[in-house]
Design a protein that fits this description.
The complex is a heterodimer.
Chain A lengths: L1 H21 L12 H23 L7 H21 L5 H27 L4
Chain B lengths: L1 H24 L12 E4 L20 H5 L5 H4 L17 E5 L4 E5 L17 H8 L12 H5 L6 H9 L6 H5 L19 E4 L7 H8 L1 E3 L14 H4 L4 H4 L28 H5 L20 H5 L2 H5 L9 E5 H4 L16 E8 L5 E7 L3 E5 L5 E3 L2 H12 L5 H8 L5 H13 L7 E6 L2 E5 L5 E4 L7 E4 L30 E2 L16 E2 L6 H10 L3 H31 L1
Antiparallel strand pairs in B: 1-4, 2-3, 5-6, 6-7, 7-8, 8-14, 9-10, 9-11, 11-12, 12-13, 15-16
Helix pairs in contact in B: 15-17
Classes of the chains: A mainly alpha, B alpha+beta.
Chain lengths: 121, 563
């Protein structure tokens, strides 16, 4: 069981890392992730979405509050990008949601990194 | 002495000041929104009032008749009369001469791809007789009635008169003030020799549409009747609500980035300025939300690309325009397939590198290519004799050549015609034929040989009307209106149809319908949209589950920690 959890955790972390790398093309404010970078981002995000569900419902026993918070923020970030994707906001405002998705994801990754660093062992 | 000097200075100042005031007060104005009823006398060329019952026969002069109340000099200039800066390219005039198979876009403005009137041997008089029918004219030739007479203007009569070389009296014939024999109609005048004319600043859209109608043809190049009007007109707006001008007739063209000659900011009179910008919203213009559309589309695609012109189909839509096809003239000759051929829509980068819709046409004609690569078209009048000699053509090169091709080879025939033209040229000059998007020269073995040159490429100009409402816009059906393998229009190409029947010996270079995207990348990207709806469901489900699961997990973790 622990081995399975570790495997999921490793894959999740890898995908999180790749997602973070792929949004670097759109980090400048007011820019949108487009073209090949967006395709790459979606390619990575598709399995990551499923792994996030697993990670949020079945957390590893040693996960700290900070770690759990990081995964939850990542899930919320995924929800944010759905607002423009589903057409629930105007085109003009959609950038706000997309940027929110990016910055919240980054924040989650930072928190996740900190929890790994301070993990007692 | 000092007092006298002061008085003189004061009087001079007052005099100069009063001149300015007088200048402003020369022109009569009501300054009311209620239109002024024009019950006015007609005047002759030296400004004398004409009495139609007088035995002295005098010819009316439109400028002098309007001049007592209006600044005719200013009104007969401006962008609408062909003055002022060239600005963004517009629809060219197209010289069509079937005798010489000439079909050449030209304009007095310096726009890419179009020839100057002089280069085709058109002086002012020739120009007026060829194109004046659909031109309001400038200076003394201005026809104020064609735009400002709201009722009782017979546009066909105007065309008749201008074609017969009588442009200055054409407005009076069209307005019914001159009868068929050229005499003033006394019944139109009251006892004080005044005539009542329904002249308005905004005389209604129909006056603009006399020269600015665009008609889509159906798949058989016939008159389409399932067309839509411009959404603005259907909503009750008039053309001049956006295309405004003062007495100077510096008509606002309404495109984004337009620099108006007056220096005024006319941003709010463009699509974006009125519908998207904060200072817009005139006439209750709706603020579109474009839900679900990634915002870069609005930055990199013009409003007109999705909302204007004919909706994209797999093949281009042939169109007739007033100026190119003499619309407004009752005629039995306007049959499907008549020249000039104008096609819409090709989406190409505009001067700001945004995707914009264009109409296009291809030049056809004969000319001289010199050693420097400069192309000089040969005027039809210079072509009749050599072409008649070489091709044994009498009146219509296109029709007669089509008949000849049943028995003879078109390549040999046309190469012979080029050789005939070559005989009269200087050393270093080369006779060339331009048709179907290519240039052609004759080879030593008497055949045609093609070569590509920008001179033969399609001439394009942006289209803006008719504007389609949101429900008919490209994208109203979702992303797959463009991003799908089925939306063939985006990858289809438009090809020139040569005026001359030589389609069997060549295939000209195509013009892409969407000339802005790498084909492979576009196709690859389109595949992503196949499963877009499924992806929305998938990501929504994942987000819901992950957020709820994460919240529960976080709550449990907090409780565990607090124990």
């Amino acid at each position: 069981m622990i081995q399975r959890y570790s495997s999921i955790a490793s894959w999740t972390l890898l995908l999180v890392l790749l997602c973070t790398v792929s949004i670097s093309a759109a980090l400048a404010s007011g820019e949108e992730l487009r073209g090949n970078w967006l395709q790459f981002h979606l390619l990575v995000a598709t399995p990551l979405a499923a792994l996030l569900v697993i990670r949020c419902w079945w957390p590893r026993p040693e996960t700290t509050i900070g770690g759990q918070l990081a995964w939850w923020l990542m899930a919320i970030a995924m929800g944010l990008v759905l607002i423009p994707m589903l057409g629930w906001t105007s085109s003009e405002n959609s950038l706000v949601w997309v940027e929110g998705h990016g910055w919240l994801s980054l924040l989650a990754v930072v928190i996740l990194g900190c929890t790994v660093k301070i993990k007692p062992n | 002495m000092n007092n006298l000097r002061s008085i003189l200075i004061l009087m001079t100042t007052l005099l100069i000041g009063s001149l300015g005031t007088a200048q402003d007060s020369v022109w009569k104005r009501t300054d009311s929104d209620d239109p002024y009823l024009h019950r006015i006398p007609l005047r002759d060329s030296i400004g004398r009032v004409i009495d139609p019952r007088s035995e002295i026969s005098t010819v009316p002069h439109l400028g002098k008749s309007c001049a007592p109340c209006h600044d005719v000099e200013a009104a007969s200039g401006g962008l609408h009369a062909g003055r002022g800066p060239d600005g963004r390219r517009g629809e060219p005039w197209i010289l069509v001469d079937p005798r010489s198979a000439t079909h050449m876009p030209l304009h007095r403005r310096d726009w890419p791809g179009v020839r100057s009137p002089e280069s085709l041997g058109l002086d002012a008089e020739n120009w007026s007789q060829t194109f004046g029918r659909h031109e309001t004219g400038a200076g003394d030739q201005s026809d104020c009635f064609v735009c400002h007479l709201a009722s009782g203007y017979d546009f066909s009569k105007r065309i008749e008169q201008v074609d017969s070389g009588n442009p200055s009296l054409a407005p009076f014939f069209a307005a019914g003030l001159l009868d068929g024999s050229g005499q003033l109609d006394p019944s139109r005048f009251d006892s004080s020799a005044q005539v009542e004319l329904n002249l308005l600043g905004d005389a209604g859209n129909q006056t603009c549409l006399r020269c600015h109608t665009v008609r889509n043809l159906d798949a058989q190049n016939g008159r389409g009747w399932l067309h839509q009007d411009d959404v603005h007109l259907a909503a009750g707006l008039s053309c001049v609500d956006c295309h405004r001008s003062g007495i100077d007739h510096q008509m606002v063209r309404g495109y984004e980035g337009e620099q108006h000659p007056s220096g005024l900011d006319v941003t709010s009179l463009s699509c974006r300025g009125c519908h998207l910008d904060s200072q817009g919203g005139a006439h209750g213009a709706p603020l579109p939300e474009h839900r679900g559309l990634p915002p870069f589309h609005l930055d990199e695609i013009t409003c007109t690309a999705c909302h204007s012109g004919p909706a994209p189909t797999d093949a281009g839509i042939a169109q007739w325009t007033s100026r190119a096809h003499r619309l407004g003239e009752s005629s039995q000759k306007r049959q499907p397939g008549i020249a000039p051929r104008i096609v819409a829509t090709s989406l190409q980068p505009d001067d700001q590198q945004r995707i914009a819709p264009y109409r296009l046409t291809w030049p056809d004609g004969w000319g001289i290519l010199d050693a420097t690569g400069h192309f000089s078209p040969l005027p039809p009048s210079d072509l009749r004799r050599p072409l008649r000699k070489a091709l044994r053509i009498r009146s219509n090169l296109v029709e007669e050549l089509t008949e000849k091709l049943d028995t003879e080879d078109s390549s040999t025939l046309l190469a012979g015609a080029l050789d005939q033209l070559q005989d009269s040229l200087q050393p270093g000059q080369r006779a060339v034929l331009i048709t179907g998007g290519l240039a052609w020269k004759s080879t030593e073995d008497g055949q045609l040989e093609s070569f590509t040159t920008p001179l033969a490429e399609a001439v394009t100009w942006p289209l803006s009307h008719p504007v389609r409402p949101a429900r008919s816009a490209v994208g109203a059906g979702g992303c797959t209106d463009c991003h799908s393998q089925e939306s063939g229009w985006s990858t289809n190409e438009l090809r020139a149809i040569p005026l001359l029947p030589i389609g069997s010996i060549f295939e000209g270079p195509p013009v892409a319908r969407l000339a802005v995207t790498e084909t492979h990348r576009w196709s690859r990207w389109s595949w992503l949209f196949v499963g877009r709806e499924v992806a929305k469901i998938y990501f929504s489900a994942c987000a819901f589950l992950a957020i709820s699961g994460g919240l529960i997990g976080l709550w449990k973790r907090i409780q565990e920690e607090s124990r």
